[in-house]
Design a protein that fits this description.
Helix 1 packs across helix 11, helix 7 packs across helix 8 and helix 11 crosses helix 12. By secondary structure, the protein is α/β, with parallel strands linked by helices. It is built from twelve helices and 16 strands. The chain binds NADP nicotinamide-adenine-dinucleotide phosphate. The site of NADP nicotinamide-adenine-dinucleotide phosphate has 26 residues, from helix 1. The site of NADP nicotinamide-adenine-dinucleotide phosphate (NAP) has 26 residues, from helix 1.
């Protein structure tokens, strides 16, 4: 089996999770991760996890002064890799692209980058084959990934004519202290549509979709209320079965105590999930409502982890390690323990 060398540039919320997911893949080797600040995360990466850590050339001394072992510069890390997953803050990836191009390395970018950073915007259940062999792939944002998992499942089963969705966004990730709101609900923005539907269209250009978003004071998950008009009339059972059988989607029951995002996260904690991650899209079973060709449901998105499986699939697509979506989905989902919820 070919084993490809993967570097993860940026070891934050997304980067640390993608790095760990890479270590679980039989066809991938994690050759290093990068950071700019010599903080406790850098100590964990090197001393606890045993990763090789690469830093900007002008920061080597600061890391060494802090007693953190450095394997080399970010340029050297990129040089050694077969492919780079760029998980630097939004906008930085576009700057790093120059380095990836210069070193002749393919790269996976995140949703914080503009779509034109890559050859294709990507979501496994929608357009895996379109990304095959592409040098630069952008995994869309957490909200977009959540919308696309459900929409592309319904598209495949029944066809989708239009989607309208309201997105209730978490204010910050749990580790962030400078973001808000703390005590308000903020239209994001008030002028419609929000950018999320436009981002969905970077993957499914022909979809009629309009989204609105508000930001609320929570750190746990996003929640979407979605209205879709399908290409034909369906029954509630058909829709429930389609979601139930789809990869990376789980249904939870309000009747079983899943009354909020806090309950989903609590279950993930009780199940011993690493970092209480829930990379699956979570749909409340009771919310699924069908009226002829119209379907309504509510779904929750764990922003910190939902894009991790898609990053792993994007590596396989770029390097043609799997030609069919089902082949990468099988390995990714098995190694990451997906759909083993309740
Ligand atoms: N968090 C989410 O909910 C989420 C969900 C989906 C997609 N995304 C997208 O994923 C990307 C990363 O977001 P994130 O939330 O993971 O960010 P983050 O937690 O702030 O992590 C960014 C990482 O990049 C490193 N970094 C900063 N500047 C760098 C530079 N010049 N060179 C190399 N590394 C640098 C940081 O290292 P230091 O700490 O050492 O500076 C940090 O490890 C963004 O495009 C974002 O939009 C985020």
């Amino acid at each position: 089996m070919t084993v490809v060398k993967v570097a993860v540039n940026g070891f934050g919320t997304i980067g640390k999770r993608v790095a760990e997911a890479v270590t679980r893949q039989p066809d991938m080797q994690l050759i290093g991760v990068s950071k700019t600040r010599p903080d406790y995360t850098a100590v964990i990466a090197t001393k606890v996890l045993g990763y090789d850590l690469y830093v900007p050339a002008d920061k080597v001394e600061a890391f060494e002064k802090a007693g953190i072992r450095v394997a080399g510069t970010i340029e050297e890390m990129v040089e050694k890799a077969d492919i780079v997953v760029d998980a630097t803050p939004g906008g930085k990836g576009a700057e790093y692209k120059k380095l990836y191009v210069e070193k002749g390395k393919p790269a996976i970018f995140q949703g914080g980058e503009d779509a034109d950073v890559a050859d294709v915007s990507f979501s496994t259940l929608c357009n895996y084959t379109e990304a095959l062999g592409k040098r630069y792939i952008r995994v869309v944002s957490c909200n977009t990934t959540g919308l696309l998992r459900a929409i592309c499942t319904l598209r495949r089963e029944f066809g989708v004519r239009s989607v309208r969705a309201t997105i209730v966004r978490r204010a910050a990730d749990p580790k962030e202290v400078k973001r808000g709101p703390v005590n308000a609900i903020v239209p994001n923005p008030a002028k419609l549509p929000s950018h999320h539907g436009l981002d969905v269209k970077t993957v499914v250009p022909d979809l009629d979709i309009i989204t609105a978003a508000v930001v609320v004071p929570t750190t746990l998950m996003h929640v979407h209320v979605v209205y879709a008009r399908l290409a034909r009339s369906v029954t509630r059972e058909e829709v429930e079965r389609a979601f139930e059988e789809a990869p990376r989607i789980i249904l939870v029951d309000e009747a079983l105590g899943f009354k909020s995002t806090a309950d989903i996260i609590e279950a993930a904690r009780d199940l011993g999930r690493r970092r209480y991650d829930v990379p699956e899209l979570v749909i409340w079973r009771e919310s699924i409502t069908v009226n002829g060709d119209e379907v309504i449901w509510m779904q929750a998105v764990h922003q910190e982890s939902i894009v991790v499986p898609e990053n792993i699939d994007a590596i396989r697509a770029a390097l043609r390690l799997a030609d069919k979506p089902e082949d990468t989905i099988r390995v990714t989902d098995e190694t990451l323990g997906l759909k083993k919820f309740l």
